[in-house]
Amino acid sequence: DAGVTQSPTHLIKTRGQHVTLRCSPISGHKSVSWYQQVLGQGPQFIFQYYEKEERGRGNFPDRFSARQFPNYSSELNVNALLLGDSALYLCASSPGTGGYTFGSGTRLTVV
Amino acid sequence: GENVEQHPSTLSVQEGDSAVIKCTYSDSASNYFPWYKQELGKRPQLIIDIRSNVGEKKDQRIAVTLNKTAKHFSLHITETQPEDSAVYFCAAGDDKIIFGKGTRLHILP
């Protein structure tokens, strides 16, 4: 039984470029959340989607956007990348409220 | 905005002793309080969670207590073992979950 899968696992981008990160939730889970984790800190909430609708948004600039598809998978998009966007991006899925299971993350390096 | 404070940031405990990590939260609408363990280079793993209609929950050596009036909750690990060494995160929320900054737990031999 597959857990939360994220792709790619690692990514190197240049400042100003755009990036798309992907997440497939656990089968049957309808909620997906995105977090940014900078080394040595706790995960910072970016977005939460449930049944394809945005349920919450963290304190991130408009360069960050996301969407959820009919099969409940999700994409996180970041435009005009900055050096400070370098981090581990984690996706978590849940059947509803609570019980979030994290994927292994995408490590993004912006150079 | 919502905030979760976690203390201490670092904790060293002799093997076999108990460890306690404490968190406070600001959003009174929070109803769900998970704890995650993260080992170096790995994803956060859910170790225990509690909902606001319960004051205490225990799972083997791990227990969590919640005081909703005071808006604080704690993680207790008893009979600590070397494999308990990791970073522990508390979190609070409902639909969206806000994390604390983490506690690095060292188990000393």
Describe the model:
The complex is a heterodimer of chains A (111) and B (109). Chain A is mainly beta and 111 residues long. Chain A contains no helices and eleven strands. In chain A, the strands form two sheets. In chain A, strands 2, 4, 5, 6, 9, 10 and 11 form a seven-stranded mixed sheet that branches. Chain A has a four-stranded antiparallel sheet with strand order 1-3-8-7, with no helix packed on it. In chain A, a hairpin with a 5-residue loop joins strand 7 and strand 8 (74-78). Chain A is globular, with a radius of gyration of 13 Å. The mean pLDDT of chain A is 94. With 109 residues, chain B is an all-beta fold. Chain B has no helices and eleven strands. Chain B has strands spanning 4-7, 10-14, 19-25, 32-38, 45-51, 56-59, 62-67, 72-77, 86-93, 97-99, 103-108. In chain B, strands 2, 4, 5, 9, 10 and 11 form a six-stranded mixed sheet that branches. Chain B has a five-stranded antiparallel sheet with strand order 1-3-8-7-6, with no helix packed on it. Chain A binds chain B through residues 31, 33, 35, 41-45, 48, 50, 55-56, 58-59, 90, 97-105, and chain B through 1, 6, 31-32, 34, 36, 42-46, 49, 51, 89, 94-102.
Topology:
The complex is a heterodimer of chains A (111) and B (109).
Chain A: E1 5-7, E2 10-13, E3 19-24, E4 31-37, E5 44-50, E6 53-57, E7 64-68, E8 74-78, E9 87-94, E10 101-102, E11 106-110
Parallel strand pairs in A: 2-11
Antiparallel strand pairs in A: 1-3, 3-8, 4-5, 4-9, 5-6, 7-8, 9-10, 9-11
Chain B: E1 4-7, E2 10-14, E3 19-25, E4 32-38, E5 45-51, E6 56-59, E7 62-67, E8 72-77, E9 86-93, E10 97-99, E11 103-108
Number of helices of chain B: 0
Strand content of chain A is over 45%
What is the H/E order of chain B? EEEEEEEEEEE
Mean pLDDT of chain B: 95
Overall outline of chain B: globular
Sheet with most strands of chain B: 6 strands, mixed
